Each structure stands twice: as structure tokens, then as C-alpha cells.
Amino acid sequence: MLDDLNKIDWKNLQHAYGSAADIPNDLKDLTSIDKSTRKKAINNLQKNVFHQGTRYQATVYTIPFLYELLQSEFTRDKHEIILLLINLAFGYEEEYLPDGFVIETYKTELKQITESENPDSYDYVDDLKILINCYEAVKDNILIVKKYFKSSDKKTREASLYAISWFPEYANELLNEIIDHLNTADDEIEIGNTILSIGFVLKQLKKTIDLSFIRNHLNNDSKLVRACSLIALAQNTPDKKILHDLNTKVKSDNDFNHVEGILFNNGQICQYAGMILQ
After folding, report:
1. Per the domain annotation, does 152 fall within a domain?
2. How many domains, in total, are found in the chain?
3. Burial class (CB in 10 A: 0-12, 13-18, 19+), 139
4. What is the mean pLDDT for each group of 10 consecutive residues in the chain (278 residues)?
5. Domain check: are 177 and 100 in the same one?
């Protein structure tokens, strides 16, 4: 595993704090049996190749090795790696809610700036190229996470569904599997994340399907599941009652300021509801 790590000239690549010579050790430490070592490694990678949402020259070189680690049976905390990959693809992905990310926007911007031949824009051109390359590098192998839809680890299952939902061109093919996941989800957090994934995918695809299976969850015993169902329905089949309930029962409920374990919008469900209602 990681046999090609030393083939990269890391010391001459740049991350947030200069030379990326420390990246190989952090990648190797993700396989450690010691939890604190793994946590330190993932934190180091987040601050070095994803500092405050910025991606760097070394970031795109890191992505293939994260996928390699993800596929290894010896790698623990796979959910952390999946969520890091999503950060590397989008930056702070919540900035693109509720409609999703459109890479063509950045490609068009790059083309326009390049054609303008304005020397003051050269640094920004480099930044745009890095952003696009990181997105493409994650997207090219994102279907690897599909194998973890049925992982024995709940956090890994949830992270894999969440990750796929950000790539609607792939999620469309897997939509039935994502919907089926509702039948096996363990608890209200997993049900909530799954419903939000379904709603987000359908929103991006502008696809109409029978959502009665989500409407049924409006009567769920869990207030959280009911809230997630309202969000998914409001994104796709909004009617006056759905929008009214989203406003009064979700956006205005302080219990939903932050829900630990909900991946969309970092668990800030009130804010997510507000985005949809705008």
C-alpha cells in the first residue's frame, strides 16, 4: 500500500505552510493502529492541503493516495477520509447548498480570464486550475465509495451516501440503492442523512419521482426525521403546507440549530431550512 508515495517530489510541492515534504508521513499515519496518531494525521492533512477551504499545489497529488487508503482493509476511520475527499473536491461544500455545485461555472470563468490575458489575474488562474483539478481528481474515483453503502460502520455508510449525493451524474444511477438504504438505516441520524441525500440528489437532477415514501416519514416518531423529510420535500415538491411547516417547525426550532451527526450543512438544520425558504 502507498507504494508510489515516494515517486512524488513532495518537498518541491507546496501546501499551506510551505513544502509538502510532511504529507507522506501523514498519509502513512492514517493506517496507524493508534487512534490519536490517526486523528493527528487527518487534522494535519486538513490544515495543510485544505487550509481554511483553500486547496494547494500538493492537494491534487494527495487525492489518489487517499483513495488508495480508502480501499485498504487495514485503514480505519474511513468516514474521515471520505469527508476529507469531499472537502478537497468542493472546499466548504455547504457554500453550495441548497442547489449543488456546478463545475462548469469555474471552467467558464477560467476560460474567460485566460483569454483576457490580464497579468493581474495570473495568480487567480493558477488557483482556479487547482480547484478544477482537485474536483476532477475526486470525481474520477468517487464511485469507489459506493462499496461502503453497506459498511458495518454507520459513520462510513453515512459518509459514502453523503459523498455520492454531491455528484448527481453518478447518484442518478444509484438512486434506487440510496432510497433502499432507508429500509436498513439504524437510527434517526442515519435515516435523516439518507432522506437529505435523496432530496439533494433529486433537487440537483430536477427529477420528479413519487415521494410518498418520504411523505410517510412526516408521521415518524422522531422530530429530526420529520424535519429532514420536510427539507427533502420542500426542495422537490413544495406546497404551501410543506413550506409553512418547514418555516414554523424546522427553521424556527432551536433544537435544530445544530444536530450532531447530520452531515448536510454541518448539522445546522435551521439554517439549511432557511436557505430553501429564501
Report:
1. no
2. 2
3. middle
4. 94 97 97 97 97 96 98 95 98 97 95 81 87 98 96 97 96 95 94 98 96 97 98 95 97 97 98 97
5. no
